[in-house]
Write a structure and sequence with these properties.
about 625 residues, globular, 9-stranded mixed sheet
């Protein structure tokens, strides 16, 4: 007999909604696409996998069914009614949880209910549905936070399955699989909150639609989308009450797959089908989708640069390999950007696993023009090592996740060091001997304009051609107290005649002059919410605790953000006593500015004028500083 089973126990606490997929709630549909495709690609590393080199295909299909055709419908409605009554009494102030059940009851009592079927093909299906504890089937359906995937696979935390539940207005999903071990299986899972029962026990909140004979498994396929029965190995996931109610969910899925699996799609390892052919993403058309205006709105801007590296691999791409665990288990490909869009492009390198999934963008790289890179982790050992350092959403490495954090940090530093050293070695030599000063004005200060004597502000900006620019690397100093590296030679900080960093000294600020001064009480954040368009000033220099800059165009509001930059991280500064002068005029007539946390906001910035910003920090160590400049979004 098949039925819903919600286990209960004595002396346990109530399980709340914050324990269910919290890490996926910000971007549920993109997270769903990422986790699903990762799981399907991971089947390539199961020993039973053998599909003759066929492309793994994943489909996302929307359909509607009669609400009463949901397996165990009457029992399920009764559970929601009990949950609503209990939680409405339990939560005296916050009604978010009882409202969830009230809305769920409305969905269940409609004639039709919206579902999403996610199906993969050319995979193994979920092996081991007859096992009691450990198997791909058990780890997906029965176990929580368990991952026992083989060497080389992508999953690492056993939490990706929660992304499917977050996309359901009922937090309910059905699984059905036809696996290569010859077994067929299905079950339903509802991840709800706990509630007290009349017999004094507490329902755990997690319920299973299963058979009496075999827990967590019904030994047959489930086919809710009757027109498309499964006839080959693979897995179907049915999201009941699919809650993304706009057409954008299709474009978000395409964008998420391109962002996270551009290498897998490019290599013809992965194909996506949405709504039975309405959208098909594959090796032959990925570039067309990247150029689609609506899809491009959801894409990371860096992805197009990564794709250019793959497309131009045999032309203007620089490659270098490195042996971290095994011989040449890291391959870095670099390419100088053939774009003039330098106001939005940020130098990054994508770190990609052997499955073809991008994990993160390596940032804060040497400033040697505009470039991007793809770092492919091709060895099984390097993949296994770094996947254990990932967070649940697979977009960050943290040494503290390792049982040996010091060793893990050393490995992260070694990987990052290989990337940075290769960039310095390979890209420096690719810079031409002669560079137009108009382009170099983004990188080099104007010593006459930004000299020690700011009274000479009438000197014009020079756009002459600079010949034979020497770029040399300054040795990295070590700050033993912080255990982080100090400033690289390419950062915009004061250097002595030998190229060594002059240690910062606490600046002596002049006394306040007449005119308006910043209000230490921050203005509402809404005023600056649109100040997020990255810009590069025509001139900029940072000297001790003073920033001098000039804009190439008028800007309504300019935001200058200061961060402490380290290997693979950045940290907010704590600014105080901020003072801004325009053209070294102490009266500051009409100048409006403010500061919040680590950001300084200057209003009505006019082109070519020189702005001087002085500030204090809560300490004066020899920090590596990063300065980012933003303007208002243009209408």
């Amino acid at each position: 007999m098949k039925k819903w089973n919600f286990p209960s126990a004595e002396r346990i606490s109530i399980n709340g909604f914050n324990n269910i997929g919290e890490e996926f709630k910000d971007n549920p549909v993109p997270a769903l696409a990422k986790e699903i495709c990762q799981n399907s690609l991971d089947t390539k590393f199961i020993k039973e996998y053998s599909n003759g080199g066929k492309t793994i295909r994943v489909s996302f299909d929307e359909f509607w069914i009669d609400s009463k055709s949901i397996p165990g419908y009457d029992e399920f409605v009764e559970v929601f009614e009990k949950e609503y009554k209990f939680n409405n009494d339990f939560y005296k102030n916050d009604k978010e949880v009882p409202n969830f059940y009230k809305n769920g009851l409305d969905v269940l009592k409609n004639d039709k209910i919206r579902c999403l079927r996610i199906a993969d093909y050319n995979t193994t299906g979920l092996i081991g549905s007859n096992e009691k504890q450990s198997s791909p089937w058990c780890n997906l359906t029965k176990n929580a936070g368990v991952s026992d995937k083989p060497e080389g696979s992508g999953g690492s935390k056993g939490k990706g399955k929660f992304a499917s539940f977050i996309c359901s207005s009922l937090y309910t999903v059905f699984y059905s699989t036809y696996a290569k071990d010859g077994l067929k299986a299905s079950c339903g899972i509802a991840r709800l909150s706990g509630y007290d029962l009349a017999d004094g026990t507490t329902a755990l909140g997690e319920g299973y639609y299963e058979s009496d004979e075999e827990l967590f498994r019904i030994p047959e396929l489930l086919n809710l989308e009757e027109k498309y029965p499964r006839t080959e190995y693979g897995t179907d996931i049915y999201i009941i009450g699919f809650k993304e109610d706009t057409e954008n969910w299709k474009k978000k899925i395409i964008a998420s797959v391109i962002d996270n699996f551009f290498l897998a799609v490019f290599n013809n390892d992965l194909e996506i089908d949405i709504c039975h052919g309405e959208y098909v993403l594959n090796q032959s058309n990925i570039e067309d989708y990247m150029q689609d205006e609506e899809i491009n709105n959801f894409l990371s801007q860096e992805t197009s640069y990564y794709y250019e590296i793959l497309k131009n691999d045999k032309e203007d791409v620089i490659s270098e390999s490195f042996s971290l665990f095994n011989e040449n288990d890291l391959i870095l490909r670099l390419r100088v950007d053939d774009t003039t869009d330098k106001y939005t492009s940020i130098n990054t390198v994508a770190a990609v696993r052997s499955t073809g999934m991008k994990i993160l963008d390596i940032k804060y790289l040497p400033r040697l023009g505009c470039y991007h890179g793809v770092l492919e982790m091709i060895g099984p050992k390097v993949n296994d090592y770094f996947r254990k350092l990932e967070n649940a959403t697979h977009n960050k490495w943290s040494a503290s996740r390792s049982t040996n954090p010091d060793e893990a940090q050393a490995m992260i530093d070694k990987l990052n060091g290989f990337v940075r050293d290769t960039i310095r070695k390979k890209l420096t030599s690719s810079i031409k001997d002669e560079i137009d000063a108009e382009g170099m004005s983004e990188l080099l200060p104007d010593d006459e304009l930004f000299g020690d004597n700011n009274n000479e502000k009438e000197e014009s900006l020079s756009d002459d051609v600079i010949s034979k620019i020497e770029i040399r690397e300054t040795p990295i100093k070590q700050n033993n107290d912080l255990k982080t590296k100090s400033v690289d030679g390419e950062d915009d900080l004061e250097l002595d005649e030998n190229g060594e960093i002059i240690k910062k000294k606490k600046p002596i600020h002049p006394g306040p002059g007449p005119g308006p001064h910043p209000n230490p009480n921050p203005r509402p954040e809404e005023r600056y919410s649109k100040v997020k368009r990255r810009i590069i000033p025509s001139k900029m220099r940072m000297k001790n605790n003073e920033i001098l800059f000039s804009s190439s165009i008028d800007e309504e509001i300019v935001k200058i953000e200061l961060n402490i930059s380290g290997e693979g991280y950045k940290e907010k500064t704590n600014l105080t006593n901020v003072r801004v002068l325009k053209n070294n005029n102490p009266t500051n007539t009409g100048l409006k500015y403010d500061f919040i946390d680590n950001s300084i906001f200057i209003e009505n910035v006019t082109a070519k004028d020189v702005y001087s910003i002085t500030y204090d920090m809560d300490n004066y160590e020899n920090w590596t500083m990063e300065v980012d400049v933003y303007g208002n979004e243009q209408e």
